[in-house]
Design goal:
This protein is of the alpha/beta class. Helix content is 42%, strand content 15%. The strands form 2 sheets. The chain has an 8-stranded parallel beta sheet with strand order 9-8-7-6-5-4-3-10, covered by helices on one side. The protein has a two-stranded antiparallel ribbon with strand order 1-2.
Amino acid sequence: MGLMNQLGQSDIAVHPVALGTAGFGWNISGTQATAQLNRFAELGGNLIDTADSYSAGRAEQVIGTWMRTAGTRDRMVIATKVGKNLDAAGLSARSIVAAVDASLERLQTDRIDVLYFHAEDDQVSLEESLSAAAELIRQGKVRVLGASNFSPASLTQARILASQGLPRFEVATANYSLLNRKAVEGELSLVCAAQEVSIAPYFALANGYLGHLRDRRVRAGDSTHLRAAHSHDNRHGHRVLQALDDVAISHGVDISTVALAWLLDRPQVAATAVGCDSISDLEALMHAPTLHLTSAQIAALTKASN
C-alpha cells in the first residue's frame, strides 16, 4: 500500500499509522508526549487521534501546545471526538457546538480536520447532530465528520440524511485487531464499502497484548489497560501470538509491526490509531505500512485468528 491513504471521499490524505493519545496527560507525561509527537512527525506521521474526554481535555492541550511551539499545525491532520466530555456530553446541537469550541481552544487551532461523534446518542436525533455539524463545517471549524462505535444501521441512516444534504461520515472507528474481528468484518465492513467510508481501527494491538504486554502478568492494583490485555491470554491469543512470531522472525521485526501490517491490509482500512508507551514502540509501528506480508503469511495470520 502507499504511504498516504484518502479518508473516504474527502480530500484528506493520511499516513496509515495514526498516533493515539488516550494516555497523554494520564500515564504519559507532557514531556514524554512531546517526544512522541516529535518522533512521529519526523517519521512522516500526520494523523493525530485524540478526544475531548481523553484525560479530561489534557491530551488536546498537550497536542495544541506542541503544534504551536513546533509550528506543525499545517502538517498535521487532527482528529478529535466529542460526546463524552462531561462538560458537553452527548450529541445535541448545543453540546456539539460547545465541545468543538472548547476543543479548538485547547488545541490552539481554528479548525478540526476530522470531528468524530464519539458514540451514538439515543436521546438525540442523528439529524440534529448532523445539522449542527453542517453549520460548523460551513463556519470552517470542522472539515469532515467521522463516526466512532456507530452501528451499521446508524451509518445507513446517516447515508440517507447525507443524500438529503447533510454532511456524510468519511471515516468510522471500531475495535478491530487480529484478536477482535467480529465488530468490523461482516455488516459494518459491507456498509462502509458501499458508502466509501474508510475504517480506522482502534485497539489494533488488542490493548498491547500483540506487543510488549504479551508476557506481563496481572497483579492486584494493575491498570485496567493491563487487565484488558491479559483478557486475551488464552488458547486463541496464544495461537495468534505463535503465528505472529513465525512471521516476525522471518522479517526480523517486532510482532506489533506484523499485527499492524495485517490490519492495514484489510478492506476499507485507511489508518489505525496506536498508543505507544515508548519511542521504540512507535518506531516499530511506523514501519508497518512498508512491511510486505506475503499472501501465505496473511492467510496464516487470518487462519490463526479465526
